[in-house]
Amino acid sequence: RAREKKNEFTLEIQNLIKTNSQLRKSSNILSPNCREIAQQKRRAQERAT
Question: Superkingdom of the source (predicted)?
Answer without folding.
Answer: Eukaryota
